[in-house]
Amino acid sequence: MKEAEVRDRHRKYLILGLALLLAISVVAYRLIPTPTPSTATNVEITKIFYDGLEPRTESDEYVEIKNLGSEPVDLEGWVIKDISEGYPSLTFPAYILQPGESIRVYTNEIHPEYGGFSFDSGKAVWNNSSPDTAVLYNAQGQEVSRKSY
Predict the structure, then answer these.
(1) Overall pTM surpassing 0.85 (yes/no)
(2) Which CATH code of 3.40.50.300, 3.40.640.10, 3.40.50.1010, 2.60.40.1260 fits the domain covering 43-148?
(3) How does DSSP assign 23-60, residue by residue?
(4) Which of 38-42, 52-56, 93-97 bottoms out in mean pLDDT, i.e. has the lowest?
(5) Pick from 72, 60, 75: which is nearest to 136 by CA?
(6) Taking residues 84-93, what's their average pLDDT?
């Protein structure tokens, strides 16, 4: 066998070996699970600040929601609602709530450091003189958390 034929044969084996290695890598990559945000119920309403400091509108009232779990949770389609009155409610856009992270839904203020969520209500949401209840529903409409004061 001539030297050129040996080189060609080695080249072919090298190309076949690299193709096989690439194919194995692609298959292995697809078999490794990718972490996806959880839909578990480790998300709770932890606080209702119901007596705002802003006169009349109490725009600074808020409901605080925290991920108490160890996995991120996608809040897209989740709903927070004042069920005592039946309104207002807020349906969350795509938002990943990281483990240990808290967000707030304000009556009529935007605070980016707490997620930037607001009911966009021109009047107070939470009753100062009688009990009120906030409920959090997941994207399937199941109750995840409830808090009253």
Answers:
(1) no
(2) 2.60.40.1260
(3) HHHHHHHHHSPPP--B--S-EEEEEEE-S-SSTTT-TT
(4) 38-42
(5) 75
(6) 95
